[in-house]
Amino acid sequence: MSLTLHFHPLASYCHKVLIALYENDTPFKANNVDLSNPGERAALLELWPIGKFPVLRDDARNQTMPESTIIIEYLDRNYPGPTRLLPSDADLALQTRLRDRFYDHYVHEPMQKVVGDRLRPQGEKDPHGVEEARARLQTSYGMIDREMASRTWAMGEAFSLADCAAAPALFYANEVFPIGEAEANARAYLDRLKARPSYARVLKEAEPYFAMFPR
Ligand SMILES: N[C@@H](CCC(=O)N[C@@H](CS)C(=O)NCC(=O)O)C(=O)O
Fold first, then answer.
1. What is the helix (H) or strand (E) element at residue 3, kind and residue range?
2. I need a labelling partner for 34 at 20 to 30 A (CA). Which of 4, 15, 53, 190 fits?
3. Please, are residues 13 and 213 in contact by the beta-carbon 8 Å criterion?
4. How far, in Å, from the CA of 9 to the mean position of ligand 1?
5. What is the model's pLDDT at position 1?
6. 101 CB under 6 A from ligand 1?
7. Tens digits of residue pLDDT in 23-51
């Protein structure tokens, strides 16, 4: 087995890559990184000095890949399986990447802002930044609701990179800023994502760590 994923089972961007791996039953070794352990943090920094996970190491190709989107593109290109994560059609691939960017920047990042603020000590909170993040989430939920009125997955009928990005972003965003009754299509999309076997497995494996999440 040449692939090792450096990750944490609770971490949302790690969920994104785990979904891609599980979609295609891609064999990999899981290295659970505890960032509070100085040795484990130092080992991650060796691989990717930015110090964020997931990071994929491929010994067979002597490649180290950070960044969830890039990892998924790498897997799709070098370890393809029955679920093609990026369409081969260039225009469809562009639309898929657009949705991946949308979910990362306009759902995942504001969700991280709200969650991160809950972990800050009193006196160091950023209420203005949190208000902006909540407003951004509200705008995004409306956009998702309109688009998902006529779609099963983010790109239509085919599950893709865009859904890998959407699942953890929407799951955790909904925990801290619930998707409203008025956004029934967005809620139904999240329900479909949670029921998808690849993401259901990721959530099951995250369960023992959920107590660490600041609900
Ligand atoms: N753009 C990165 C974001 C990765 C990221 O934010 N990872 C978080 C976990 S979900 C992390 O490593 N947090 C620990 C830290 O920032 O110290 C990606 O797409 O992989």
1. strand 3-7
2. 190
3. no
4. 12
5. 73
6. no
7. 999 999 999 999 999 999 999 999 999 99
